[in-house]
Amino acid sequence: MSQKQWKLSDVGSLVGKGLKKLSSPHRSRIAIEEDVERLKVWLSQEQHLPNDVDPEWLTAFVIGTKSLEVAKQKLEKFFTLRAKLPQLFHFSKRDPLEEEFKNASKALKIYFLPKPTPEGYRVLIISEGENFIGNFVHSQCTVRLTMLMETAMSIWPDMAGLITVTDMKGVPKAFLTKMDPTSIAYYFHWFQNAMPLKIKKGVLFNSPQFMNIIVNTLLKPFMKAKMYNRFVITSDGDKALKKFVDEELLPSDYGGKEPSAEFLNDQWNSILEERRDWFMKTSTLVADEEKRLPDIYGTYGIQGTFRKLELD
Predict the structure, then answer these.
(1) In the chain, which residue ranges form alpha helices assigned H by DSSP?
(2) β-strand 121-128 against 108-112: which pairing, if any?
(3) Engineered SS bond to 259: which of 3, 32, 103, 177, CB 3.0-4.6 Å?
(4) Please, are residues 26 and 160 in contact by the beta-carbon 8 Å criterion?
(5) What are the C-alpha distances in Å from 120 to residues 159, 220, 240?
(6) Does residue 81 surpass a pLDDT of 90?
(7) Dihedral, CA atoms, 218, 220, 221, 223, nearest 10 degrees?
């Protein structure tokens, strides 16, 4: 597919329409919709949690967890962390039109591939951008990553999993001095405990030797064993990437049939800008601790209504 043929609407048109093509190999559409309605009822009964939640998000929590109980627990953490971590979720940090946001975004190309893998996994690719060391602000890039993840959850609520790919080519050793342990801790705590998305594989290729130091010293302490064991670090080039993602799905930079990395990155930056009002709205969806009721059962205020999914 040429760059001229690929349009923002190829991805953007799915926003708000993801439920029309809803599918899951383990659940019927009716069963999923029933559980989404159960989540809506539950939210309406929880005074400290927001009610105006996108159905796509609720669908992602239903499909991405093993039981309705787990979905509720994750949603509880999702909204609680949004309140406790304004560094990541306050709109002042998430405004894609702010100069600080735009400048930091130049440091990295971050984008989802237009098409999923045969297994239904979505692929997120990260690579060096413009003036990496000069523009890179770890905290702001972490904010951008959370925004991309939440957008993907809205566009593809039924994604079967996520593959993250990081091309370390050209990243200098000075990168170590730009790393922020706090941003790392916040991100992994949020993703692992509050998000329904599943990392199926993490691939870091073209990796210099110092990347092993970063992963084992700065990342591993914040990663659960299951996630850590799904990451692969290699100094090999594109061939290593193609072991996990079909070549035809990749950008033209890597020999694939999709547009260039630069083009896809620009398109996803445009998607974030077009969804500015959505980010403004969702930044207010947080837990209100003043309204939280005591939970003597440790069930986040729910007695009953938990139903196991058809497949664990």
Answers:
(1) 9-12, 29-45, 55-63, 68-84, 86-89, 91-94, 99-105, 132-135, 138-155, 181-194, 210-213, 225-228, 238-241, 261-274, 276-282
(2) antiparallel
(3) 3
(4) no
(5) 6, 27, 20
(6) yes
(7) 120
